[in-house]
Specification:
Layout (H helix, E strand, L loop, with lengths): L15 H14 L6 H14 L3 E5 L2 H11 L7 E5 L5 H4 L7 E5 L10 H4 L7 E7 L8 H5 L5 E4 L19 E5 L13 E5 L2 H11 L20 H11 L2 H17 L22 E4 L3 H10 L25 H9 E4 L7 H15 L2
Helix pairs in contact: 1-8, 2-8, 3-7
Bound molecules: pyridoxal-5'-phosphate.
């Protein structure tokens, strides 16, 4: 039996009846945009992450752009972003008029730290985007102690827990993606911004609706970027299961560690005091490409993410030395993980790794 990189169907199988009820409730309501489901989801999601405000938007990329603008980022500013992340993290900076400035990552956690951010700071730095990459939790408070506000890119970290609380409530603001394969996934696109700052929340709410509070007066050039009622209703059902799903991901990670493959590849390291809800379980090997091909040959879907880091992408290329980023880009390989990945499947992946790497 083939083992997929992630299985989005199995965790949802027991929720089919509940999901249908939620979907039919929206169909019957006739409200499809910014109605009661979005309001309720915003309340429930803010409560879940431990933030005062949540604002539903169309996707995680818009969430980043809108959150940056709500934080006051604009033309002439610089935003420090890691180069080892999904492209959208840096792409989302451009529409604000600011310039992304790349920084390196900690080689053990794949996340930015005060040490990696510091060399990228300048008098023009208006914000740092700390990506909780693969579900690991970046040290947000320690970065803010450098004197610069942090926007958390928590697209991969729903369900994770850091030493100071959940991603979403650790910095000036945070963004989430509800793309179907994320830890909390809609049946289409969706995203959210969370914050404890009433001013940022108010401005983000205005920006998601064309820069208007009342649909009559347009104060700024904004966006048409809203979470649908249908997606909000679906997410409300799933949110109640997010913690159990995160436990399932952590259990699979524990099983990988217990399987002994740590002698053959470098296992991911949880950042200090954190309990990541591993969105991706990314190991490292000098033979990552060979290992990935051999695993796929054996029916194990392993995949390299971010083989070409952002500072080497044609659209964003800059001449800068980021050694830990280049190393992670060269050696990383994501193994199958998910809330319902069974122990026998983990053992099968481990056996396939062993068969490939042990002579
Ligand atoms: C998925 C993702 C995004 C973008 O989210 P979309 O909903 O696809 O726009 C941004 N940052 C990171 C780190 C992501 O993984």
């Amino acid at each position: 039996m083939a083992i997929p990189l992630f299985d989005t169907a199995t965790p949802l199988a027991p929720l089919q009846a509940e999901l249908r009820v939620a979907i039919e409730r929206v169909l019957a309501s006739g409200r499809y945009i910014l109605g009661p489901e979005v309001r309720e989801f915003e309340t429930e999601f803010a409560q879940y992450v431990g933030a005062d405000h949540a604002i539903g938007v169309a996707n995680g990329t818009d969430a980043l752009t809108i959150a940056l603008r709500a934080m006051g980022v604009g033309p002439g500013d610089e935003v420090v972003v890691p180069s080892f992340t999904f492209y959208a993290t840096a792409e989302a900076v451009a529409p604000t008029g600011a310039r992304p400035v790349f920084c390196d990552i900690d080689p053990a956690t794949f996340c930015v730290t005060p040490e990696t951010v510091k060399p990228a700071l300048s008098p023009r730095t208006k914000a740092v985007i700390a990506v909780h990459l693969f579900g690991n939790v970046a040290p947000v408070a320690a970065i803010e102690a450098l004197g610069v506000p942090v926007l958390e890119d928590a697209a991969q970290a729903a369900g994770s827990l850091g030493p100071d609380g959940r991603p979403g409530a650790l910095g000036a603001a945070a963004t989430f993606s509800f793309y179907p394969s994320k830890n909390l996934g809609a049946f289409g696109d969706g995203g959210a911004i969370t914050t404890n700052d009433a001013g940022i929340a108010d401005r983000a709410r205005m920006l998601r609706f064309h820069g208007s509070r009342d649909k009559q007066t347009f104060e700024e050039l904004g966006y048409n970027s809203r979470l649908d009622e249908l997606q909000a209703a679906i997410l409300r059902v799933q949110l109640r299961h997010l913690d159990a799903w995160a436990d399932g991901r952590r259990e699979a990670a524990r099983r990988y560690a217990a399987s002994g493959i740590g002698e053959l590849v470098t296992l991911p390291t949880a950042s200090e005091g954190s309990r990541p809800a591993w969105h991706l379980y990314v190991v490292r090997s000098d033979r990552a490409d060979q290992l990935g091909a051999a695993l796929r040959e054996r029916g194990v879907e392993a995949r390299a993410y971010y083989r070409r880091p952002l500072h080497r992408q044609p659209a964003l290329a800059v001449d800068i030395e980021l050694p830990a980023t280049d190393e992670a880009a060269r050696t990383s390989l994501a193994l199958p993980i998910g809330p319902t990945l069974r122990a026998a499947q983990v053992d099968e992946v481990a056996a396939a790794i062993r068969a490939t790497l042990v002579p």
